[in-house]
Amino acid sequence: MQLKESGEMYLETIYVLSQRKGFVRSIDVGEEMGYSKPSVSRAVGILRDGGYITVAHDGGLHLTEAGLEVAQRTYERHTVLSEFFIKLGVDEETATNDACKIEHVISSSTFAALKKYLNEQMN
User: Fold this and answer.
1) Could you give the domains of the chain?
2) Could you report the per-residue pLDDT of 27-49, keeping only the tens digit for each?
3) Which end of the chain lies in a sparser environment, N or C, as judged by fewer CB atoms within 10 Å?
4) How much is the pTM?
5) φ and ψ of 13, to 5 deg
6) Across the chain, what does the average pLDDT equal?
7) For residue 72, what are the contacts with CB-CB under 8 A and spacing of at least 6?
8) Residue 98: what pLDDT?
9) pLDDT at 2 over 70
10) How far apart are CA 90 and CA 26, in angstroms?
11) Which of 67, 69, 73, 66 is nearest to 24 (CA)?
């Protein structure tokens, strides 16, 4: 199943919340993303059916191996791009918003080249 941008955003949010809080429920995701319960419920169903998350009996959301892979990749892109834009002089809010858009469309090869360049510049 090919994920769309919104699916990647949900997985990234579940990942970030799990790092911050440990236990993540649908309501937590909705509050974090500013989405309604029905929207989150629909997305959770799609992600569960796609094999990206599991939902425990207590309502806890857990990333599967496939979900974790997508979430970590998306989060890494988000953080690297945000930091890069901030270093270029972009204000933090704009940098974060722009990174959030770009993280879903940048190719793996372009992102790898950008990371390599940044690592070379920092050393």
Assistant:
1) 5-69 (1.10.10.10), 73-122 (1.10.60.10)
2) 999 999 999 999 999 999 999 99
3) C
4) 0.89
5) -65, -45
6) 93
7) 15
8) 95
9) no
10) 33
11) 67
Task: Name 67's Cβ contacts closer than 8 Å, sequence gap at least 6.
Answer: 11, 14, 47, 51, 52, 53
**Residue-wise pLDDT tens digits, 80-104:** 999 999 999 999 999 999 999 999 8
Q: What is the pLDDT of residue 20?
A: 94
Q: What is the DSSP string of 67-106?
A: HHHHHHHHHHHHHHHHHHHHHTT--HHHHHHHHHHHTTTS
* Per-residue tokens: 27: 């309501």
* Side chain identity, residue 32: E
The residues, ordered by sequence, that sit 6+ positions from 99 with a Cβ below 8 Å of its Cβ are 77, 78, 79, 81, 82, 85
Residue 24 gets which letter from DSSP? -
